[in-house]
Amino acid sequence: MANNQIENKIRQLRFEHGQMTQSALATKVGVSRQTILSLEACRYSPSLELAFRIAQVFQVPLEEVFTYSPD
Question: What is the pTM of this model?
């Protein structure tokens, strides 16, 4: 997805939560570190379930992790 419209603050939130590593977040949400890397780089859009799991880890609303910008 070259023009991904879903942006996220995962990297920022990881650092705000004790400098959590990509691997630690991946383990908490049940995906690979490479998936977290791809999400942070906006090369991959998460499933709705994964998006909610990530928000739960950081204890914030979904909208504080992911934003959608239509063309």
Answer: 0.89
